[in-house]
């Protein structure tokens, strides 16, 4: 279920978080679905259980999952649009703080998405 790149510069716990959020947004995981146990996910992927626990804790803090002690971790009811806005904000704020302008971001987005905006006369 999870595809983790152990050689990536992105920490494994962040990869787990991002994949769970994507699964929720895509409807693969629905509210109330039980996630794999920390031990099972760690064992299946050959990673430290503390890494999985950290990912789950961060997701719980963000409101994407909830933990029922001795029962497991479950997908919470989340507002997908709000989640997407939060993801965009987490990407844009560091760019703004580093001095990148709004125009530079728009130009980069248009390039990446292959779009060109033309001013109407």
What does this structure look like?
With 121 residues, the protein is mainly alpha-helical. The protein has two domains: 64 residues, Winged helix-like DNA-binding domain superfamily/Winged helix DNA-binding domain (Arc Repressor Mutant, subunit A, Orthogonal Bundle); 34 residues, no CATH class. It is 55% helix and 7% strand. It is built from five helices and two strands; from the N terminus they run H-H-H-E-E-H-H. It has a two-stranded antiparallel sheet with strand order 1-2. A hairpin with a 3-residue loop joins strand 1 and strand 2. Helix 1 packs across helix 3. It is globular. It starts with 11 loop residues before the first helix and ends in an 8-residue tail after the last helix. The model has no long low-confidence stretch (mean pLDDT 88).
Could you provide a short overview of the structure?
By secondary structure, the chain is mostly helical. It has helices spanning 12-26, 38-45, 49-61, 80-97, 102-113; strands spanning 65-68, 72-75. The chain folds into 2 domains: 12-75, Arc Repressor Mutant, subunit A (Orthogonal Bundle); 80-113, no CATH class.
